[in-house]
Design goal:
By secondary structure, this protein is of the alpha/beta class. It has helices spanning 4-55, 58-71, 80-88, 108-123, 137-143, 165-176, 208-212, 225-298, and strands at residues 93-98, 131-135, 151-155, 184-194, 197-206. Helix 1 packs antiparallel against helix 8, helix 4 (108-123) packs across helix 5 (137-143) and helix 6 crosses helix 8.
Length: 299
């Protein structure tokens, strides 16, 4: 027979947890409303650079280069995977994982880390050829064990307050000043669609040399090198700011849903524990009555 005191303590503990999850849901709902409102004003920072990449056919050109490398004829003594790895060593990438320091939000951070892990594992056998930037402590914890040599920049204190453009500028400046020369960068973040839907998205960004070599770059007016360099740096910061805002809105919506589910699960546990408590108490009372009656009958 389960002890009555143990059931009582467990019931009290679950009720306290339910109060915490309900409070966190209310806090997340408040933060989500603010993040969704700020996201509407931050989306032009992401749509502008992406539209420029599309109009200059920069994304299509890089994709074509990757396809040519993947479809190139390897030597007879090498397998296609080995030939692709050798070509990929010449094409350096930088991966930017946009997460935060806080959890209790479902699989928001886990999906980003899993996608980057798969990309780093399949694209190149030379782990030192590519570098990894972890924005948020969650992605760093999940990726540092397998890709500690790829770590370039780690950013903490993300998610406690709403991100601003200054944060994205500081992160982009730290990456630019790290001295790592890459060809293409990819930002992995969660794109917000609705309070119940977000999607893992990969957004590329390019250096000044790649922008200059874009097929349709001649359609634009003559641009000086220093102006193009400034534009490339600003584009990177703008895309980072946009990804941080999208990720913040997705995280708050996911945390709100997770806390709502946790509150409902706690309600189910409370109902079951209350039933068990009542049955246990009734069994204790019945047993004591039987003992009293048996004692009285013996006298």
């Amino acid at each position: 027979m389960v002890q009555l005191k143990q059931v009582s303590l467990r019931l009290k503990s679950v009720k306290n947890i339910q109060k915490i999850t309900k409070t966190m849901k209310m806090v997340s709902a408040s933060k989500f409303t603010k993040a969704e409102r700020e996201l509407a004003s931050a989306r032009p920072f992401g749509y502008g650079p992406q539209k420029f990449y599309e109009s200059s056919r920069l994304v299509a050109n890089v994709t074509k280069e990757d396809d040519e490398k993947a479809n190139s004829e390897p030597p007879a003594k090498d397998t296609p995977e080995m030939a692709e790895d050798k070509e990929d060593k010449k094409f350096k990438r930088i991966y930017v994982a946009v997460t935060s320091d806080r959890g209790l939000c479902g699989g928001v951070h886990t999906g980003v880390a899993r996608r980057i892990r798969r990309s780093l594992t399949t694209r190149s056998a030379d782990a030192a050829a590519h570098k990894l930037v972890c924005i948020g402590d969650k992605s760093r914890v999940m990726l540092r064990r397998a890709f500690s040599e790829n770590m370039l920049v780690n950013v903490k204190d993300i998610g406690r307050i709403a991100p601003v453009f200054k944060d994205a500028s500081i992160i982009s400046a730290a990456i630019m000043q790290s001295g790592y020369l890459y060809d293409v960068g990819e930002i992995y973040y969660n794109k917000y669609f609705s309070p119940v839907k977000y999607e893992l998205t990969v957004m590329p960004f390019f250096t000044k040399d790649k922008i200059e070599s874009a097929p349709n770059m001649s359609a634009f007016d003559d641009v000086e090198d220093d102006q193009l360099e400034c534009y490339a740096e600003w584009t990177f910061a703008a895309l980072l700011f946009y990804a941080l805002k999208e990720s913040a809105a997705s995280e708050q919506s996911a945390r709100m849903a997770a806390m709502d589910n946790a509150t409902k699960n706690a309600e189910d546990m409370i109902r079951k524990l209350t039933l068990l408590f009542n049955r246990t108490r009734q069994a204790v009372i019945t047993r004591e009555l039987i003992e009293i009656i048996s004692g009285a009958a013996a006298l």
